[in-house]
Amino acid sequence: MGERGEAPAGLLGPEAAVLRLLGLWRPRERQGQGLTPPAVVAAATIAAVAFIPAGVVLRLCGDFPEEIEETAHCSYICIVCFGCIVKAVLFVMEGDTVRELVHLLQATRAEYGSDEGSDRIRSGYQGTVDRMYRYFQVMALLPTLYWICWPLVAAAVSPGEASGVSGARQLPLPFWLPSGASGTPTYHLLYAVQALSLSLTVASAVCLDVFFIRLMMMLAAELQVLNENIAAIDGCRASGSAYGREEEEFDSLVPSDDRALEPTKKSAANFSDDDLFSRLLNNILHHQAILRCIWLLQTAMNVSIFILLFINMANLCFNMFVTAGLLQDGRNVTKAVTAFSPVPGLLLQTAMYCLFGQITTDQSEKLLHSAFGCGWDDCDTRFKHNLLIFMLMVGRPVEITVGKTYKLSKEMLLQVLNGTYVLLNMLFHVHSDDHI
User: Fold this and answer.
1) pLDDT category, 166, cuts 50, 70, 90?
2) Are the beta carbons of 301 and 402 closer than 8 angstroms?
3) CA–CA separation, 375 vs 231, rounded Å?
4) What is the model's pTM?
5) How far apart are CA 404 and CA 366, in angstroms?
6) Buried b (16+ CB within 10 A) or exposed e, 38-62
7) Which of 39, 99, 308, 404 is paired with 325 by a 20 to 30 Å CA distance?
């Protein structure tokens, strides 16, 4: 039980530690304790994320913005925060599934392919996700600091402009303040709460994305290890094979003195039919464990990532439409650029899930070729029969599916982009008809 409790530490990265501080991830489930402290922390984190859209709704109800870019900004914040809340809540609700997946993946790594080559493959995938986590942290830190600090910088550079017509100072995010409240401690308290909520929202969103991507990459690593192990089964070197007979005949023609000078070679007869069948069976069991891990991952990602991709597509369409409308009306280019600024981040997040899901599928597609090229032609009937069953099993590549129908792949990314274009085209026609 001690090893089981510490197992995720060697598999997961720094994002798991951040999620644990936020209360969203618990390596071990604690039974019979009611409302545990991690649950309280998770509730506080989700409440902090929900504070941002609540403030935006209050702004829309108390002082609806007159300009379209401000309305688009408020809508974007509400939709993105809604996606973050759904993803965080469902991640906590699927905690048992995620914990089972992590422990099963850790046990699979320990039981199958524990040689140096397999460790090198897994370390390569692990290092890739670690670097990606650092890149995402930097990419998220810059806009977060900008959103938090720009009201202070604007107030210091041009106090009259930052105060606006009503004389009210600005907050990092939209929020309705009654007249005269900007000079009271209420303003400073709201500023601090918004800064904290924004930081927690960005941290939880980035860490949850990297958490799921790391699990996908670890499954891709297991599939590559399985490919290497299957390809290493060289049935042609089994005892009694054609290669073995040729090697024995060649050695019999070599003089004994010259044979003694040759470097020692691994005997082909060391691999009996039972040894080869045992190695094949071990790889089949490895594949079954990987399929179980993929099923658990799909269960954990099914609803949350599907909603996330749908929200991203709607946001892409909405922001691009607002940007086009601002440019079409001849308004300030700066406002159009501001409206367009969320689009690269939305595209990156969507592409990230689709492309890393495609990596897992690509490794799965190689299993059939690895099995066919393992040198089975001179093996016994039992080996061939089980290898044929395995090839039938891997004939259909593994695909990570969300929403029960949408596969995380390059085709899914193209569908999202195509759907965005179709919606955008429809909105342009509606916009043109209104002007006519």
Assistant:
1) very low
2) yes
3) 8
4) 0.81
5) 24
6) beeebeebbebbbbbbebbeebbee
7) 308
What's the rounded Cα separation, in Å, for the pair 182 and 142?
A: 26
Quickly state the pLDDT bin for 179 (edges 50, 70, 90): low
pLDDT score, position 59:
84
| Mean pLDDT, rounded, for 309-314 | 83
Which is it for the CA torsion 368, 372, 373, 376, positive or negative?
A: positive
Q: Are 204 and 19 in contact (CB under 8 A)?
A: yes
**Per the domain annotation, does 353 fall within a domain?**
yes
pLDDT at position 151 over 50: yes
- Amino acid 359 reads I
The Cα–Cα gap between 408 and 305 comes to 10
Residue ranges making up the domain that contains 283: 2-234+271-435
For the chain, the residue count is 436
Helix (H) or strand (E) holding 356: helix 342-372
pLDDT value at position 164? 46
Amino acid at 197: S
State the pLDDT at residue 210.
93
Phi/psi at 171 (5° precision): -110, 160
* Tokens standing for residue 362: 């690509």
289: confidence class by pLDDT, cuts 50, 70, 90 = very high
Q: Is residue 306 part of a domain?
A: yes
Please give the distance of CA 426 from its chain centroid, rounded to a whole number.
31
**Residue 247, in any domain of the structure:** no
- In this predicted structure, what is the pLDDT of residue 411? 87
**Gap between the Cα atoms of 154 and 315, Å rounded:** 28
Q: Which residues of 95-131 are buried (b: 16+ CB within 10 A; e: fewer)?
A: bebbbbbbbbbbebbeebbeeeebeebbeebbebbee
Q: Is residue 144 part of a domain?
A: yes
Total domain count for the chain? Answer: 1
Quick one: CA torsion of 353, 359, 365, 371, rounded to 10 degrees? -140
30: alpha, beta or left? (left if phi > 0; alpha if psi -120 to 50): beta
Tens of pLDDT along 368-386?
Answer: 888 887 777 777 788 888 8
Residue 269 has pLDDT above 70, yes or no: no
